[in-house]
Design brief:
Protein name: F-box domain-containing protein
Shape: elongated
Number of strands: 10
Radius of gyration: 21 Å
InterPro entries: F-box_dom
Oligomer: single chain
Largest sheet: 10 strands, antiparallel
Order of helices and strands: HHHEEEHEEEEEEHEH
Number of domains: 2
Domain F-box: 1-29
Number of helices: 6
Structural class: alpha+beta
């Protein structure tokens, strides 16, 4: 009997005992693809319940020179990435991007949907809607940095945090999109070797918003999803587990 003749329940039972990285490799075998994708989805969701999160730091900066004096505007917003789904064809992992509350890292495990956290009032720069998108003045640049954090699921305290190296970064220049007249979907490569892409939308601001100081924004940036390879995600978690093992089992 060949493996493709076995029922999916047997496939599931066999794959269940394998490391996630091995399941990712076997997912390219046609008869195992559906079962492997199901298991990878379950394990990615489990990593969220354990408190793992990717964070995106977005810093918008604008330098302005007037009367030989330079003034600098800088605004930083933190976003948390929640696992959404596995692409069954490419096996890429997709994470929805949400802004976090003023509490910081607390309660990442039980983070509420964005709409439940804030009262969204479209077009109001002074409301919490400003935390749902990033307002971009003309000639500004927005830099993205990826961080990895783990919150203790029981205590809801931050257990681990690190900034990924400088190869996990990206920049968006407003001037490259200043001619937009309607909403447009875009993506930005943050790390080519692991297939990490940030998917976002740019929306032209209304004339009323364009006249509001101090930003006078011309675009609003909406971060939608973060995409990365499943193999990279499992490697990151395995590195943490290995380091934790040697810390917990060190000999003096």
């Amino acid at each position: 009997m060949t493996i493709n003749a076995l029922p999916s329940e047997i496939h599931y039972h066999i794959l269940h005992y394998l490391p996630s990285k091995d399941i990712t490799k076997l997912a390219y075998i046609a008869c195992l693809a559906d079962t492997a994708t199901l298991l990878l989805t379950e394990r990615a969701r489990a990593s969220m319940k354990e408190g793992w999160r990717l964070m995106i730091g977005a810093v918008t900066r604008l330098s302005h020179v007037e009367n030989d004096r330079e003034s600098v505007y800088e605004e930083g917003i933190e976003h948390v990435c929640q696992f959404s789904h596995v692409n069954p064809r490419t096996l890429q992992l997709y994470f929805t991007v949400q802004t976090i509350s003023d509490d910081g890292y607390c309660s990442l495990v039980n983070i509420a949907p964005v709409q439940a956290q804030f009262n969204i009032v479209p077009g109001d720069l002074g409301s919490n809607s400003a935390q749902q998108c990033i307002f971009l003045p003309a000639d500004s640049t927005t830099n993205f940095q990826i961080n990895l954090v783990k919150e203790n699921a029981k205590t809801q305290l931050l257990e681990y945090a690190t900034s990924l190296d400088d190869s996990f970064t990206g920049q968006l220049a407003t001037r490259d999109h200043s001619s937009l007249t309607s909403e447009a979907a875009n993506n930005l490569c943050l790390q080519e070797s692991v297939g990490m892409w940030l998917h976002f939308r740019l929306v032209p601001c209304s004339e009323e918003l364009r006249q509001q100081p101090p930003l006078y924004p011309i675009l609003s940036l909406h971060l939608d999803t973060l995409e990365t390879s499943a193999t990279w995600w499992w490697d990151v978690l395995d590195q943490y587990e290995t380091a934790g093992y040697f810390i917990d089992h060190r000999y003096w």
